[in-house]
Amino acid sequence: MGAQQRRSGLGTNQEAVRRHNLGTLLRHVHGTGQMSRAELTSLMGLNRSTIAGLVAELESLGISERATPAGGARQGAGRPSAGVAIAADGPCVIAVDLGVDRAVVARVGLGGRVLQRAQAPVPVGGEAWQVGASVAALIREVVEDAPAASPLVGIGISVPGMVRRSDGLIRLAPNLEWHDVSFGGIVLAALGLDVPVSLANDADLGALAEHTRGVGVGVDDLIYVSGQVGVGAGVIMGGHRLEGAGGYAGEVGHLRFDPGGRPCHCGNRGCWETEVGAHAIAEAIHCPPDKVAQLDEVLDGFDSPSPELCRTGTAIGHGLASIVNMFNPRLVVLGGYFRSLHQLVGPDIQAGLSDRALPAPLESVRLTLPGLGSDSALLGAAEIALEPLFVDPVAALGAALVDVRARLAG
Amino acid sequence: MGAQQRRSGLGTNQEAVRRHNLGTLLRHVHGTGQMSRAELTSLMGLNRSTIAGLVAELESLGISERATPAGGARQGAGRPSAGVAIAADGPCVIAVDLGVDRAVVARVGLGGRVLQRAQAPVPVGGEAWQVGASVAALIREVVEDAPAASPLVGIGISVPGMVRRSDGLIRLAPNLEWHDVSFGGIVLAALGLDVPVSLANDADLGALAEHTRGVGVGVDDLIYVSGQVGVGAGVIMGGHRLEGAGGYAGEVGHLRFDPGGRPCHCGNRGCWETEVGAHAIAEAIHCPPDKVAQLDEVLDGFDSPSPELCRTGTAIGHGLASIVNMFNPRLVVLGGYFRSLHQLVGPDIQAGLSDRALPAPLESVRLTLPGLGSDSALLGAAEIALEPLFVDPVAALGAALVDVRARLAG
User: Fold this and answer.
1) Domains held by chain B: number
2) What is residue B148's predicted lDDT score, i.e. its pLDDT?
3) ipTM associated with this complex
4) Contact residues on chain B for A238, CB-CB shorter than 8 A
């Protein structure tokens, strides 16, 4: 409700307040997986009876269950406050991390619990329908052990490319060579299911997941910069995802870096990606072209940084300086193969940044690795699929599918 | 309430709802200066009696008054819905636009009405206390005709530099040569008044004003790029001001533009500002250094663009391409001397942008001039000073000063 309310200047009425509070309470429990009523009372600024009513409603919806508080949670001398935990058979979502060389699929519950996962290679140069069929097969795999009572709220898909916010159309995924692909519809058709499906850019989802349950919890201004094959960023500012008019914000790989530099696949010359993208780095370290999609693994094989990698580290830092001047983030999370590079040439990255950023934004920014390892985008895909539950749990459950395993088998 | 509610996940109670609704209603009336109850009922999604109660409260606070609706506002066959208008003696604020060569001060009422204005040159190389004394004198001037009943809610100050969000400290105003200046406190001391004072960067305030009542009304994703002496940007994304961790977001003048370019005052080489800042342009057109702060007037004297200015236009477009790739705005508003440049070399700016931006964000972006002329930052300063009225009108009036003219005379 918050976003809509602020956008359109709507007033608030009793029923809207109740649904807002129910979703907000669930978002709190989702954050940590379990919470006491006393904590919820204090966090939400509502009285105990209101909280008790909301908790009872979530229980009756099968979303949460009563948890016995741990001894440590005892407050004062009275009875410990009863706990609220995510129900074991509660709602779940399917998260898909579509990479340029492989797809990872997971069934994920509230609290960000990965309940089942599977992965498979993505055929090089594969058509969207072929990749969609592979993803559908992985989805069938991860619902095999799903309890019949657990409703499927939706599917979230992380995409290595530009996704139109209005309808999830993949406008461009350069390294899959896809233009204007309705991948959500393709996956649903391959499954023969009708369930809400959401798509977003992988770096955007990495930022979202790190903000929700990774290294960026409690950090309102963070940027997740991801080296996959190309380079992109997901931006959270003031606690909100920065999306832009069409959903394409964060294309930092195409910042002007050196007007005399190399040609970029976008048609320009000297974009940042031509210096720090996977193809440029692979060339610098004489990595064979067919290994570019596994650049992180290749880099993990290095014992010590070569001079070429140190120069790459400096170039990463110089590009980050423009990003830091532009956004003034508190945290820059280095994802994808930038994780591996940070292990090797972290000091060069930091020095490049410190050399070039303005003092005021530099003093409060910190470079860090993802808290969720290589699962940031996957868990971000789960987050966007779960989101309707935090806006209006009742409506989201109404749109969910039950007995998914049987439906997919049939 | 909205922002706080979303940040901290607070629940909502009845009293908070009432204050939120009162402020939201006032924000609507502030937007257009006058509105019918029927429009408010429809905009806010509340019933007529709730709206009537809120309107009565605003009237009793002296903020609004009953307006006779124009004949055209008649709805259907019944009585026309009574109107709500800003009260003539209602609350006001002082807005200060501190430029590098002059200060403009205005008394501004709700609805963005400029009630009185004054301006004076800022002494070159002036100390902060000297400039503060000039600004205080201008403030005394603009309250001379203020009605005794009109409460002063606060002072808003637009600054050509980086302002720390937490306390309004001016960290750096390069062209005033100020570092770490508490200018708000200096102005209050010169006035001998204690009233809320807010400071923010001029481009940020330009963006805010253009979004509230300029060319960006209804546009949720816009960037106001301002050429003063340096170059900065104010960014509105998803309807919210992009501030960053410390309030320094939008320093687009220090985007890396050409690593082999000229030295920048920030210590780097080839920042965008070294190509499109006032000093670079003045040099290109052989404008004397003492006219740099009036570059807009110098440019307005050109009949046709010189080849140097065409090249500057292209460089502006190339820099805007990085900004468009990064933010995916719907609107880019060209403020400061970029207004004059757009009249001269608009096609070169557009061509530079179109050549270098990615197709997806390019297709939805439009370059435009400010709707508020050279008053964007001034009116933005009024907006931040008025803001407490839209969060909680009762509390904001409690903190306001009455009979300001007499207090300043005494």
Assistant:
1) 3
2) 87
3) 0.89
4) 3, 240-243
